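During the reporting period the student researcher (J.K.) took over the structure-prediction task from the postdoctoral fellow and processed the backlog of single-chain submissions. One of the processed entries is reproduced below for the supervisory committee.
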Amino acid sequence: MKNNILILCLLVFTIGCKENSGELFTKHSPSDTGISFENTLTETKDLSILDYLYFYNGGGVAIGDINNDSLPDIYFSGNQVKNKLYLNKGNLQFEDISIKAGVEGNSSWNTGTIMGDVNGDGLLDIYVCAVVGLNGFNGHNELFINQGDTTFKESSAEYGLDFESYSSSAAFLDYDLDGDLDMYLLNHAVHTQDSYGNAEVRFKRNYETGDKLLRNDNGQFTDVSEEAGIYGGINGYGLGIAVSDFNQDGYPDLYIGNDFHEDDYYYLNNGDGTFKESLKQYFGHTSRFSMGSDVADINHDGMPDLISLDMLAEDEMVLKTSEGDDDVQIQKLKTQTFGYHNQYTRNMLYVNQPNGMFLETALLSGVAATDWSWSALFGDYNQDGEQDLYISNGIPKRPNDLDYINYVSNDNIKQKINSTNLVDQKALAMMPSGFVGNKIFKGSTNLKFIDESKTWIAQDTVISGATAYGDLDNDGDLDIVTNNLFSPAIIQENTTNSTRNWLKIKLNFKKENKFGIGTKIFSFANGIQQFKEMYTVRGFQASSEPIIHFGYGDLKNVDSLKIVWPDKSFQILKNIATNQTLYIKPEQTKPFIYSSLHPKQKPLFEKEPNNLGITYEHIEDAYSDYLRQKLIPYQMSDRGPAVSVGDLNEDGKEDVFFGGSKYIPSKIFIQGDSTFQLKIYPEIQKDSIKEDIASLIGDFNSDGKNDLIIGTGGADFFNEMKPLTDSYYAASENTFIKKQFPELFENASVLLKLDYDHDNDLDVIICNQSISADYGNKPNSYLLENKNGDFTVANNPFENLGMITDAIVTDFNKDGWEDLLFVGEWMSPRFFQNNKGIFTEVHLLEDGKANGLWQAVTSFDIDGDGDQDYLLGNWGLNTKFSASIEHPMKMYYGDLDKNGATETIVSTYKDGKNYPVDGLKELSSQLVSLRKKFTNYTSFAGKSMEEILGEDVLPNAEIQEVHTLSSGYLRNDNGEFFFVPFNFELQLAPIMSFLEYDFDGDTKPEVLAAGNYFGVKPYHGRFDSFPGVLIYDVNNITFANRIGLDLMGKSIRNMNIIHSNNHNYLLLTFNNEAAKVYKILKR
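J.K. obtained the following structure tokens:
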């Protein structure tokens, strides 16, 4: 018996040690450190999450050396418990001095806390935010001024900072560069009738909920919010605040994360005491329930990047039982009617671009789904020179649980909750717990973050909120402190120590800003640049130790440090040994020229001021595919417009045809002496009911005049409706007449002209992408034989070819006969060899499993070996879709419920199981029988496709697959082709178009690749972050925003070269946007 007890004790001890340690961080218990602070909440009949929506947001934490003994101390704020200050005694031992220091506070509900030297005496003061005026909460925000003897004096009223509002957090910054610290106060709204509605309610100021910018006027803080352009409305659910000089002009900017329906705010500092809110201009989309945020340079380009947290779960059980994104129609209402920006429920990782735009990569980078996430902290925790990422997680009860929402949405229940306590306990019991572990990701190259949560940190399920870092034991690495709910605060000791090298920098700037808030430091070592800024407020309701920390791996010396002070002066230190703390103050400084951070690159393209007179703007019609087929993965109706360039009036100059969407006429622009003019051709104008997706200009009847063929689509008209038929117009005496053409009723995607039978006329290939109202059915494509200008369908080798999106005419076997390469969705690239007028499919791919969601193809010798390779545009990897040969993405197609109409269900693999992408609400709206099979969301969650469809339905489905989502190229190895994925730069969004041309005038062609696509459900977000690239060869590409093109946030459809006035121009045509013309500059 004694032996059994001993074994059990040893087992418990072993498990306990393992639980408290990871490979990088060791978790210390309160008995080890002396830190016993615990933010425990007490629910009452009058106070719970049913009464206060931010009941579980937790308190704050601030780290800083309050007594200047070089040991950082820790301050915790609590909701219903007293605030605590712990003095660092060394060796991770702390003493509670809260009562003696006088910092426990008197407000009944505290939130975030920060440290900063408010009065410029070189001592850190403490500011504590509070919620006042709700649910009986009383008090005010408190400012504890450091007296220099480890005691503090509450002085908020003296400084004008004793606000009685709904405060979340605050940040110190010198926004006007007058040398002292100003404050941004972050407040939050609560749901009221007034907090909903049009986005313009943000312009009406509200004291309790509106944010405040407070200017420091000789120790008195003055509210300058309105004159500075800071919003302060009743709909500002402020939870996240990030301060950084995002555009590197010397003035601090702000990113404010708002929960719920209100947009985040991106305030760019104008340098004159005012800010310009610029979110929509620079961010294509944002997180929806924005929470904590942080800033760091994650790709070594010297520009600050940003993460904003949300609460998307990765676990299937949680994912399928949680409310997520709006449906399509509500999203349209919010963005198009109420004026809100594009918001989606997931973390967002924004990468700063030279033109000020931010591309968003969280899905590609692997950090989009971390569950109920509060705080994000970038830091080089393993000191390898890359920025890692720590995220705190958890909530006691999930108020976004769908079964709970259904329960409380009942009018009777809602009335009881609002007026009585009769059903409160049942409602609370219906919310599942959200005890999930914190996450940590290892930074690496190519914007990828590797989840090291199971190895670097202890495995536990505490609920952590506010998080801060500091070097608590002065060993050179960054330790982490979390303020937790219902459990003691945690110190996680970083054990990297001396295994990798580091630098720690403490600043001594001018008297009013001794800690150098706003200072920038650029590190240069071994050819790699690192960039850091001194801002302590990071993450969520917290501030970290005022130090700058760099990791260097095994490097023993740093080549140089460039220190740029807040007053726009700088100094350089050279040849610095690592593994030391540097104390830096301004010495031998020189004026810093901020334009040096924005080196001018010689552009290849210049926007043509008047667009050459081309005033075409594509307007997509309002039809939504999802109203007819709710489960399709993306739309088919938005693939236009058609564009063709050619001489349409016999003057030897190139003209442009633009297709129109449904009921909108196409437009033809005729080239004049200096500009293009719109010309109306009545016969073409009459066909406005059709949606023009593809077009061809060519002399099809061999009369010396160019004719026009238009491929029709749009996916709205169906069966054999006439508006689905394609059109053929022959040139005749300065006009066009409509000619007979084969009646085909699929949705066209691309038209090709070729002389496949060598009879000296132009034949036509019509490629089709879909059949209306029957997504998943493989349409025919057609070979049309030209006989004296009349077309007939030839013996069709392209029956059920697939969902074709693009194709090219190419002689891949070099026999002088034009062959064909087709690409499309849910299919592999398909090669058809022309055997003297007869097309036969040949299988040239080395790996037969190359199905993709292919969007574009072109030929290009990318590897410079003299033969033709083929570039392929795919869906990209910045997506919730996932696919591999081992675990393909699947589409179940067929009349699954035997009701006479087909359905499609898309599924992907996760942890070895095949799950539907859509949830119960979406699936049961199309398959009504599922409502009986699964009576609530919990019964549905975690079920595989096989379990959901069952043996009765599965046999009705044809299963189609996707094996890769990567864009890439087919490498030609002596006539056999091997697929090679592109690097991450070309995986940011679907690539929709390629254009080969000698853009730089070096006699060698390059390929311009562009894309982005928006026709997906809000669950997928918007694919708007691809800036385009110019591909020189396999090892040499350049982002298009570095050479003069503006392609982000626009969905490209066609790219064409036009020649006018002895210049070459690039014509860019977008879906639902105005066409743009860029001049190609000579080099």
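The committee noted the following: The longest strand covers residues 569-577.
J.K. will present the remaining backlog at the next meeting.
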